[in-house]
Amino acid sequence: MFSNSLSQELLLIEVLRNGARALLAQALEAEVSSLLSCHADKLTDDGRRRLARHGHLPEREIMTGIGPVKHNDERAVQRARYIVWKPSLG
After folding, report:
1. Backbone angles phi, psi at 45, to 5 degrees
2. pLDDT digits (tens, 9 = 90+) for 27-73
3. Which end of the chain is more exposed for a tag (fewer CB within 10 A), N or C?
4. Residue 37 has what pLDDT?
5. Is 1 a residue whose pLDDT tops 60?
6. More confidently predicted of 13 and 81
7. HSE, side-chain direction, 13 A CA sphere, residue 14
8. Rounded Cα gap, residues 75 and 57, in angstroms
9. pLDDT category, 85, cuts 50, 70, 90?
10. What are the boundaries of each domain within the chain?
11. Are 24 and 72 within 8 A, CB to CB?
12. pTM over 0.70
Protein backbone atom coordinates (compact mmCIF):
# COMPACT_ATOMS: atom_id res chain seq x y z
CA MET A 1 0.00 0.00 0.00
CA PHE A 2 2.73 2.47 0.98
CA SER A 3 4.77 1.88 -2.18
CA ASN A 4 1.66 2.39 -4.34
CA SER A 5 0.92 5.82 -2.82
CA LEU A 6 4.63 6.73 -3.06
CA SER A 7 4.74 5.80 -6.75
CA GLN A 8 1.57 7.85 -7.36
CA GLU A 9 3.14 10.82 -5.57
CA LEU A 10 6.34 10.51 -7.64
CA LEU A 11 4.28 10.31 -10.83
CA LEU A 12 2.33 13.43 -9.83
CA ILE A 13 5.57 15.31 -9.09
CA GLU A 14 6.94 14.34 -12.51
CA VAL A 15 3.74 15.56 -14.20
CA LEU A 16 3.99 18.86 -12.31
CA ARG A 17 7.67 19.27 -13.24
CA ASN A 18 6.88 18.62 -16.90
CA GLY A 19 4.15 21.26 -16.71
CA ALA A 20 6.53 23.71 -15.05
CA ARG A 21 9.15 23.00 -17.74
CA ALA A 22 6.60 23.73 -20.47
CA LEU A 23 5.49 26.97 -18.78
CA LEU A 24 9.11 28.11 -18.39
CA ALA A 25 9.77 27.38 -22.06
CA GLN A 26 6.71 29.41 -23.10
CA ALA A 27 7.63 32.33 -20.85
CA LEU A 28 11.23 32.44 -22.07
CA GLU A 29 10.11 32.11 -25.69
CA ALA A 30 7.80 35.10 -25.17
CA GLU A 31 10.66 37.12 -23.65
CA VAL A 32 13.05 36.32 -26.50
CA SER A 33 10.38 37.06 -29.12
CA SER A 34 9.64 40.39 -27.43
CA LEU A 35 13.33 41.28 -27.29
CA LEU A 36 13.83 40.40 -30.95
CA SER A 37 10.77 42.37 -32.06
CA CYS A 38 11.90 45.44 -30.09
CA HIS A 39 15.21 45.40 -31.95
CA ALA A 40 14.01 44.13 -35.35
CA ASP A 41 14.57 47.52 -37.01
CA LYS A 42 18.20 47.76 -35.86
CA LEU A 43 20.62 46.62 -38.56
CA THR A 44 24.37 46.27 -38.88
CA ASP A 45 26.35 48.20 -41.51
CA ASP A 46 26.06 45.23 -43.89
CA GLY A 47 22.23 45.12 -43.54
CA ARG A 48 21.86 42.14 -41.21
CA ARG A 49 19.73 42.28 -38.07
CA ARG A 50 21.76 43.26 -35.01
CA LEU A 51 19.99 40.66 -32.90
CA ALA A 52 19.04 37.13 -33.99
CA ARG A 53 18.16 33.72 -32.50
CA HIS A 54 21.15 31.47 -32.01
CA GLY A 55 20.18 28.13 -30.51
CA HIS A 56 20.01 27.40 -26.79
CA LEU A 57 22.28 27.83 -23.81
CA PRO A 58 23.44 24.77 -21.83
CA GLU A 59 20.82 23.15 -19.63
CA ARG A 60 20.43 24.62 -16.15
CA GLU A 61 18.14 24.14 -13.18
CA ILE A 62 15.58 26.72 -12.14
CA MET A 63 14.22 26.35 -8.61
CA THR A 64 10.41 26.18 -8.45
CA GLY A 65 7.91 25.50 -5.71
CA ILE A 66 8.02 21.78 -6.56
CA GLY A 67 11.80 21.63 -6.65
CA PRO A 68 14.41 22.14 -9.37
CA VAL A 69 13.31 22.00 -13.02
CA LYS A 70 15.87 21.58 -15.82
CA HIS A 71 15.59 23.97 -18.73
CA ASN A 72 17.52 25.20 -21.79
CA ASP A 73 17.31 28.97 -22.30
CA GLU A 74 17.12 30.38 -25.81
CA ARG A 75 20.21 32.14 -27.01
CA ALA A 76 20.18 35.42 -28.90
CA VAL A 77 23.32 36.56 -30.70
CA GLN A 78 24.06 40.19 -31.33
CA ARG A 79 26.15 41.73 -34.04
CA ALA A 80 27.87 45.11 -33.66
CA ARG A 81 26.95 47.16 -30.55
CA TYR A 82 25.93 45.45 -27.35
CA ILE A 83 22.34 45.01 -26.24
CA VAL A 84 22.18 44.00 -22.57
CA TRP A 85 19.45 41.48 -21.73
CA LYS A 86 18.93 38.87 -19.08
CA PRO A 87 15.80 36.68 -18.80
CA SER A 88 13.54 37.76 -15.95
CA LEU A 89 13.04 34.09 -14.97
CA GLY A 90 16.13 33.30 -13.02
Report:
1. -60, -30
2. 888 888 888 888 888 888 888 887 777 777 778 888 888 788 887 77
3. N
4. 87
5. no
6. 13
7. 6
8. 6
9. low
10. 2-78
11. no
12. no
